[in-house]
Amino acid sequence: KAGVTQTPRYLIKTRGQQVTLSCSPISGHRSVSWYQQTPGQGLQFLFEYFSETQRNKGNFPGRFSGRQFSNSRSEMNVSTLELGDSALYLCASSLGAQGAGNTIYFGEGSWLTVV
Amino acid sequence: KNEVEQSPQNLTAQEGEFITINCSYSVGISALHWLQQHPGGGIVSLFMLSSGKKKHGRLIATINIQEKHSSLHITASHPRDSAVYICAPYNNNDMRFGAGTRLTVKP
């Protein structure tokens, strides 16, 4: 069966713009979580959605937001982009809630460069 | 002090060697993931464990909840094992990550 699909894979944006990233989980998975990876900070948890509800949010400013649709697909949005938002954004899906005894499956990520 | 400490940061081994990567964390957890990241970014979850030991092929993961410590072992290492290995403790709907161990296995 198809894995976790993220689009777009690569994008370049200008400071001040906004960006929307998309994640299609593995069929049947109800949990989608998002992570940011940078050389300086490493991997950091952004948020998790389960059955269209945000279960938890990491320590990121309100410019970072997300949502999950009824088909479990998820989007994350970053508004008013800053140079420091340049990162690899990873999405992961699992059958049940993240960490609750469920294996998580990662997408290939979306590489965002802010110039 | 970081909540999740991994050691070593970098590790170079010869093919066939036994590898150990360590992870210590400072808070109580309900589970811990070991992740593998290859160049290019893709991440694979190797193990999720909440107690004891798990084995998958040449990989073994152990965890001691009381001591807040987990180890990942690779037996008979191979160049294709070259990757970054990341431990990720999980508790209260929050997942934290170690800085990763960059493993290079030379033929």
Molecular structure report:
- The complex is a heterodimer of chains A (115) and B (107).
- By secondary structure, chain A is mostly beta strands.
- Chain A is 0% helix and 52% strand.
- Chain A is built from no helices and eleven strands.
- Chain A has strands spanning 5-7, 10-13, 19-24, 31-38, 42-50, 53-57, 64-68, 74-78, 87-94, 105-106, 110-114.
- In chain A, strands 2, 4, 5, 6, 9, 10 and 11 form a seven-stranded mixed sheet that branches. Chain A has a four-stranded antiparallel sheet with strand order 1-3-8-7, with no helix packed on it.
- In chain A, strand 7 and strand 8 form a beta hairpin.
- Chain B is mainly beta and 107 residues long.
- Helix content of chain B is 0%, strand content 60%.
- Chain B has strands spanning 4-7, 10-14, 19-25, 31-37, 43-49, 52-56, 59-64, 69-74, 83-91, 94-95, 101-106.
- In chain B, a hairpin with a 2-residue loop joins strand 9 (83-91) and strand 10 (94-95).
- Chain B is globular.
- Chain B starts with a strand and ends with a strand.
- Chains A and B meet through strand 5, strand 9 and strand 10 of A and strand 4, strand 5, strand 9 and strand 10 of B.
